[in-house]
Amino acid sequence: MPKQRVMVIGGGLAGLAATMKLAELGIDVDLISLTPVKRSHSVCAQGGINSVNARTRQLGDSEDLHLDDTVYGGDFLQHQPPVKEMVYWAPKIIDLMDRLGVTFNRTSEGHLDNRRFGGTLFKRTAFAGATTGQQLLYALDEQVRRWEAEGRVKKFESWNYLGPIIDDAGICRGVVAQDLISMEIRTYPADAVIIATGGCGLLYGRSTMSLVCNGGAVSRTFQAGAKYANAEFIQVHPTAIPGADKLRLMSESARGEGGRVWVPRTPHDERSPREIPESERYYFLEERYPEYGNLVPRDIATREIFNVCVHEGLSVDADRQCVYLDLTHIPREELDRKLGGILSIYEKFQGVDPRDEPMKIFPAVHYSMGGLWVDYERTADGGLNIGSPVNQATNIPRLYAIGECDYQYHGANRLGANSLLSCIFSGLMVAPGIETLLESSDDGTAADQPSSLFEGARRQRQQNFDALLKRPGGGENPYLLHQQLGEVMTRTATVVRFNKDLEQAYATVCDLEQRAAKCSLSDTGNWTNQNVVFTAALIDMFPLAKTLLKGALQRDECRGAHYKPDFAMPGLEATDPAERRRQAEAWCDKFEERNAKWLKSTVAVLDEDGEPQLAYEEVDTSLVPPRPRLYGLVGAEAIEEVWKERVAVN
Amino acid sequence: MLFDYFGGQCPPYAMSDQHPEIDSFEVRVLRQDAPGERSRWERHRVTYERDMNVISALQKIAAQAETVDGQPVAPVCWDSNCLEEVCGACTMLINGRTRQACTALIDRLMEDCPGEIELRPMSKFPVIRDLVVDRTRLFRALTKVKAWVPVDGYLDRGQGPLRSMEEQQQSYPLSECMSCGCCLEACPQYTKIESTQDESESDEDFSARKSATYDSAFVGAHAISQAVLFNTNPIGKFIAGERLDALTGPGGIQMCGNAQNCVAVCPKEIPLTTSIARAGRSTTLHVLKKWFDR
Amino acid sequence: MTDTGPQGSFLVRHDFLIRRLHSLSGLVPVGAYMVVHLLVNSSILASTTIFQDNVDRIHSVGPVALQVIEWVFIFIPILFHAVFGVVIIAGGVPNTGEYRYGSNIRYTLQRATGIIAFFFIAWHLWHMHHYFAPLGGGNFQHQHASSSAAIALSSLPVKIGYAVGVLACCFHLANGLWTMGITWGVWTSPRAQKHATTVCAVFGIGLACLGLSAMSGFGDVDIKAAEEMERLRIQEKKYIEGKEERPTNSRRGVDRDSGG
């Protein structure tokens, strides 16, 4: 009887973590990746990875505070048990990565050094220079290579996942995939399939994401019947470097190490930044958010930078939007040791040394909080039942999702340095559950399924592919359509959103989708055809783009990264204490009303016509009761006072 | 204007910028349809825009799919991913020099050679198509030198060993190696190996034969440096002997000819020749020790 | 490239050891011999007699022992170094055209000078060693060290040939010393390698000066006087051995320094 096998799609942090953990459990793993796994997008993560540590603990920190920061930063939109489990695992994950050889920065005594990240007041973040994601990915890549050498893991690099194979009972039995070199289409029987394919930044044309982050694998899984949740929550990172091909991330760690964001008080001041005296500099984040300063959560920093440029007209340059991110007050040696990686990126692409000159940065699309809907099994104390095959399972039996492409951990806004944690955690945690699943399987292995199931799936994908190759000439240009998609998504569904724009955008995207169906290929060959792969990926972007826009359109509130000025809850205006009190009461009423309606996950399925249908699911907020998110709000104290009274009464 | 920044076309060319005289430039690409096919030069004209790099030029070429003479052609194929020089995918020969296409800024290239850019695939790896090459051998070398920490397992075992700041600062640069292959491309001792699959040979047999061939050929500077990285790791060094065995076996460190191009072309400025010298010392001692221990 | 697994041929399996031996043989004995050889040769600058003394001292071990020494410490190591050097050269593809870095240029020069040295030493051996006297070479006669060497080196083409050959050998040794320090892990850090570059450069230039000055020394030899000195010494030696009369100074009566 053939042995059971697990298929992992995607070789980033999550996919590799799952692969090595499964291999350790004695399970054979196949790993499909678009690129050699060492080149996965996780390498772009820069700043660090969060966990409570010995030092923060003595300053009053605890796992429960990490949980609190994460769900408060995420505006309470995430189920809390998985987050709780994650933050409790975090210190152990850091220890494991340390043992695996990650070159974390050290204190003079030889312990791991930590820096502070956004949305917290503790220095929780362990880091390896400014290339932490790269270092973590390499450590996992090395472990997987070790298992590969032992024959436990088989890697299929430069293979593209085309979709799951689902039998008549609706159970996932494997995947169809295509070799990107020979264009051969093959089936892989699998007793469990894990999707770990990251985000979908390419929906926006240019973002901080890598070119493989086209969302294709997730979209094809979605099209095969998996649910997709919280699509509208897209993180726009406050600080990125402009570029014609990509918006390159400038890590939050720059601010974590003391970087300051400012603009000249005089619009488009033509003096060089170092000649502008302190008194003429507007440190707008520090002034508006005295507690968190430059390290407010990302959604807030992004809106402030956007606002200062667009509405207040204080952009540094007249011909494009940007603000200064200033590190010049920090000693060079320290910068090199802690931030070398990102500073050299700036230097290489901008030709300016950020140790001497403040950097010019602007927000950019960065991360998808939403993703494939996945389940979990809660324990009585609010954690997860590790080993349950329900954890990280999608609604399709035997099909799992982990990492950025699941929706589970970050709610409406992700805190910096929590993504590396959630990727590794979900990867490690899914493995024991799958072990249980495989042990309890009594209907034979996937390879025992009738060959007609696999052949049928293969034939259908082959037909789709052949049809795409044989498109008549003279049709639409896929690259230009992608550019148009990116423009409309960026214009309407990033920092500030308006319903009329979103409606228009939805119509435009539907139109683009129809045009994409008429794309012509400039390469009709059957060898390493990047043209056809790109076109197929483009076509698969539309279901996600539509789900995202529809989710944003329907969600009439502001929550985390989803910001609609028409539904904003501004601060209090009154100065008279009684009036102020009354306003605060009204504010809290409105807040409760809003939560009653919108503190829900958006869960989408695609109907037969390819239209997303949305439903809303309750969120498990049993561990940290939702409370107003008051960073920098005028009248925050009054609101907080009222809110505390209400909580006490209940 | 704001949204131009985000997703759309780059803003129109600003008056104050570097190359007001250039409105387009030519890209000569050495193309090859498949392994074993003949290669040929093809010329493309690309409109100049601010902040361009070789990747954005290639993206335009793909969108145009037309040569300078107006001939419709299949888009040029190339490898790329992160576009910020940390993934190592987009290595190619740009104006004859091995480097990443993403950090090859058009403005800089125009300063060196106005109006024209030459792109070729890496010469030390088999061409798959156009600028895409097969770098399996590079990763195979990492397996050969056992570039990993042999931990017991992934369950919690408390914190790892303490390491000094100095040790971290020695190791960190080595662990920044992104397996891009520049050091191998520039190395006169690293020569191309191209195997072809026999008709009768299965995929598995072919890949096993390829691996065996790769294992007997020069491992290259990147793998030597990784061996040094793991031999200095407090846990990694438990199997230092196995790594030194690999480095003194066929295709090991002895193949190094000390041309030191590796360190000169490394985009991450990894001290590769220091690693090579350190490995030289430890392999010498290792072989002597083994010889006397017989 | 042929398919050879880890269990390939003897040469493949012992590649590391062979290459380390190759590296070592370049320094000891080949390099060391070359230094001694050039030092002895440059003693011609002091006087023909001192040079003859040095040559005699070398030959004092006797013809059989000398041949053993020659073969074991010079010919076989050089042959090994040369033949395996050719194998090494064949395994690389110099790319100085594309990558014009100092160390890369030295890499290519190391190979070029190796080839020059290979032919130069072969020619030099034919030209000077008595083995080849029957074939029209072997111009050097150890009892007539100064005069025979000076005559052999008197024509311009030969002078040019020797200058090129000696310079190639000096570069090859000095640069070989530098690469050896990396190969064996003596200088590891970039700083140490930079210092080593200076040391090796000074060594190489010094060695080249030594070699070239020895050549100029042979150019300045008064051949007639040297022959006379040599003749007297041969007679003197025979007299000491009791085979002939005490020699007399036939021409100038000069016996500046019999070294006696």
Would you mind describing this structure in some detail?
- The complex is a heterotrimer of chains A (650), B (294) and C (260).
- Chain A is an alpha+beta fold.
- Chain A folds into four domains: 5-233 and 369-453, FAD/NAD(P)-binding domain; 238-364, Flavocytochrome C3, Chain A, domain 1 (Alpha-Beta Complex); 477-554, Methane Monooxygenase Hydroxylase, Chain G, domain 1 (Up-down Bundle); 573-649, no CATH class.
- Chain A is built from 17 helices and 21 strands.
- Chain A has helices spanning 13-24, 54-58, 63-73, 80-99, 132-149, 216-223, 253-256, 284-288, 298-310, 332-350, 419-440, 451-469, 478-492, 499-516, 530-554, 577-598, 636-649; strands at 5-9, 28-33, 49-50, 114-115, 125-126, 153-157, 159-166, 172-179, 185-189, 192-195, 228-229, 234-241, 248-249, 260-264, 281-282, 323-326, 359-368, 371-372, 399-401, 600-606, 612-618.
- In chain A, strands 13-12-17-16-14-15 form a six-stranded antiparallel beta sheet.
- In chain A, helix 1 (13-24) runs parallel beside helix 11 and helix 3 (63-73) packs across helix 4.
- Chain A is globular, with a radius of gyration of 24 Å.
- The N and C termini of chain A lie far apart (60 Å).
- Chain B has 294 residues and is α+β, with helices and mostly antiparallel strands.
- Chain B folds into two domains: 16-129, Roll (Ubiquitin-like (UB roll)), CATH 3.10.20; 135-150 and 162-293, Alpha-helical ferredoxin (Fumarate Reductase Iron-sulfur Protein, Chain B, domain 2, Orthogonal Bundle).
- Chain B starts with a helix and ends with a helix.
- In chain B, helix 9 (240-248) packs across helix 11.
- Chain B has helices at 2-6, 54-64, 106-112, 136-144, 165-175, 182-185, 203-216, 221-231, 240-248, 261-265, 272-293, and strands at residues 24-32, 39-47, 91-94, 97-100, 116-120, 127-129, 132-133.
- Chain B is 37% helix and 12% strand.
- Mean pLDDT of chain B is 92; it is low at 1-17.
- Chain C has 260 residues and is mainly alpha-helical.
- The termini of chain C are far apart.
- Classes of the chains: A alpha+beta (650), B alpha+beta (294), C mainly alpha (260).
- At the A-B interface, helix 1, helix 4, helix 5, strand 13 and helix 10 of A face helix 1, helix 2, helix 4 and helix 5 of B.
